[in-house]
Specification:
EC 2.5.1.18, 2 domains, transferase, Glutaredoxin, GST_C, Glutathione S-transferase Yfyf (Class Pi), Chain A, domain 2, alpha+beta, single chain, globular, peroxidase activity, glutathione transferase activity, about 50% helix
Length: about 210
C-alpha cells in the first residue's frame, strides 16, 4: 500500500520525503501551503491530525506524526534497517540521542527566537539569553560531527536525516562561517540524489 505524506512547504517534513527517496519506497504527497502572511500551516492540516501540523504520514490506514517516530517507523517497516543503529552496537546510545536531540533540545531556542522576535523590546532580555543558548547548541552540533560528516557511525543513518533540519536552520541563521563542518554536512545532504529528488517533488524549500 502506498504511503501518503502530508507535506507542508518549508517545513521539517522535507526530511520524510528525503528518507523515502533513499529507501526507494512508494509514496504520494498531499501538499499544503503556509499562509503567505502568517507563515502558519493551513487549517486543512487540522483535518488530518488534531494538532494541525506536519509531518504526518498515512500508512495502511494509520496516521503517524512526529518526525523521529516517522523516520524510525519507515526504516523498520519499509526496508531501512541499514539506516538504523543495531540495538547491541556501540553506536546505538548516540544514535538514540541524536534521533531525539533535534526536536527535543535544539528546536526550543529556535522557536523562542521566532516567536519572541515579533514581540519587540519587552522580549529583549529573554532573547539575549536565548541567543547564547542557541549558539551553544550550534557549536555542540559542529563539535559532534565526525570528520566524514556524520552524527553517529561512519555512514548515513536516520539520525543524520533527523539532524539535517537543525543543521539547515543553523546555516540559514548565519552560523556557517564559524561552523565549517556543519556547512559541509548540509552541502553533503543536498548533494545526495535522493535529497534532490525529494526537493523536486516537495517543492520550494527555504533558500535551497
Amino acid at each position: 500500500m502506498t504511503i501518503t505524506v502530508h507535506h507542508l512547504n518549508n517545513s521539517r517534513s522535507q526530511r520524510i520525503l528525503w528518507l523515502l527517496e533513499e529507501l526507494g519506497a512508494e509514496y504520494e504527497i498531499s501538499h499544503y501551503q503556509r499562509d503567505a502572511t502568517t507563515n502558519l500551516a493551513p487549517p486543512e492540516l487540522g483535518k488530518v491530525h488534531p494538532l494541525g501540523k506536519s509531518p504526518v504520514i498515512e500508512d495502511g490506514g494509520r496516521m503517524i506524526g512526529e518526525s523521529a517516530a516517522i523516520l524510525q517507523y519507515l526504516c523498520e517497516r519499509h526496508g531501512g534497517a541499514d539506516w538504523l543503529s543495531a540495538h547491541d552496537s556501540e553506536d546505538y546510545p548516540g544514535f538514540l540521542e541524536w534521533m531525539h536531540y533535534g526536536e527535543g533540545s535544539f528546536m526550543t531556542p529556535v522557536l523562542i527566537k521566532i516567536y519572541l522576535g515579533t514581540v519587540g523590546e519587552a522580549a529583549a532580555p529573554v532573547l539575549e539569553r536565548n541567543e547564547a543558548s542557541l549558539k551553544k547548541h550550534v557549536q555542540f552540533m559542529e563539535d559532534s560531527l565526525s570528520d566524514d560528516l556524520h552524527f553517529v557511525g561512519s555512514d548515513w543513518t536516520a539520525a543524520d536525516v533527523l539532524m539535517s533540519f537543525p543543521a539547515e536552520v543553523a546555516i540559514m541563521q548565519g552560523h556557517g562561517e564559524n561552523c565549517p563542518k556543519l556547512a559541509r554536512f548540509v552541502e553533503a545532504v543536498h548533494a545526495r540524489p535522493a535529497w534532490q529528488r525529494s526537493r523536486e517533488k516537495g517543492g520550494a524549500y527555504f533558500i535551497w
